[in-house]
Amino acid sequence: MHEDDFDVFNASTVHRLSGQLFLMIGDREEARDCVQEAFERAWLRWDTVRHADAPEAWVRTVARWLAVSRWRKVRNAATAWQRHGSGLDEAGHEAASPDRAALVAALQQLPDVQRTAIVLHHLCDLDVAAVAAETGSTPSAVKSRLSRGRQKLAEILQDPGTTIDLADRTAQP
Amino acid sequence: MSHDDTLREHLADAAGADTFVVPAGSAVRRSATRHRTQRRVVGGSVVVLALAAVAVAGSTLLLPNHASAPPAGPAPSVSLSPTTAPTPSTDPTSSADPSSIPGTTGSAEQDAQEALQQVEAQAFVEQVRFERERLWQQDADFPPQVDTSVQPLLVHGCDQAIPGGGVLAARTVLVPGAESGSLRQLAVFPDSATAAQAFDALRTAMRACHAAGSGPIEGQPGVERSYVGGQVELGDESFWVGTRELVTAADDGAFSQGDELFYSTAALLVLDRNVVTVIDDPAFGDGLRATFVQESSAEWERLRPRYEAVRR
Predict the structure, then answer these.
(1) Closest CA to B206 of B153, B269, B271
(2) Which of A70, A148, B164, B241 is the most buried (most CB within 10 A)?
(3) ipTM of model over 0.85
């Protein structure tokens, strides 16, 4: 049954994709909404998506593009920052640990493309070629973004209040 | 433990994937179906209006003028010619399928389809006008600053190889670069966008264009935001064609040839012979394609003569 296939696919990937998108855009609620909308689109094209080489990548890409829509970003920017200050997520979970919050905040200081490359490469375990394919760029550009992004992350995270040490991460990928 | 593993652990922890409260797949399916149904309901209402509008021959539509003009300014006339209107979508989710109208066949069906497009477009125009006026009101402290000196150029009948998509007969729009002018954007797209898709994207572009201005991005030193937009001359008519946001960045804050062009997207549109066509993200899989070529690339070099010829 297509419905069953979709439900299994959704259940096995939605949390992971939500977390990945959250790191890319810095807003949990927005990440969840975009991922859900991407899954809705996937369902409406399920006959195509289910036979795609990488359905998960399809959903992630659609969710990412939904998230970077300027209108959406502008509309939600203010509320996103308000949420960041609330200390609780939408489920009332405790605020992130200082290190976690520092990393999320540091990621948000990176340009979109660098942040996306870092999340796709280091969290989603995509190699450079796969990141390039998913972001429509070249491997050399991805390497550059990873290098610059990690360097900048290391600089930001040198705050003595964090225990995340990425100082050695500034080497070439 | 390697540094890669350390970073991965930190990222996984920060992502907090397990803490997301998400709907079940069945709920997602229901939501998707509900949204589709809503569109059909709207489409059905439009069909009633469309049938009434069949008798209105040669009616024209009004599209708002370019973004730099006051919202109440004069608008050029645009006719959605039936002979150039997109082929009706075969997508089962489409709300504009005339075959679903009982008793409509043959030419009546075609008339209904054409009228439907007219009415959809008219409703869209009204919505755009409303949105624009609303945004002008709301964004008084953050006025739009569209660079109307950037003039998209149209090239017709251009065949382009699209990465991963083979060769498509496409229309092309070339947009002189914003910022230093050292980059050019080239967008290639097929003709398969439906009117509804195009209108929706135009609405998005209008919103984006009016929602924010150009300039530095707060908290991101060295990153600039600008919009590519402007007017297109088609015959005796002139249209504002939307926007694409460019976000440029370089370590030293300067933007020079060869730097990465970082962009997020709104939409880039072209009014081509009275048909609105849209460039959108290929991930949506509806036949919309766009590719962006840097001036320094081999692809750009291949296209440069054509571009230069058009510029002359």
Answers:
(1) B269
(2) B241
(3) no
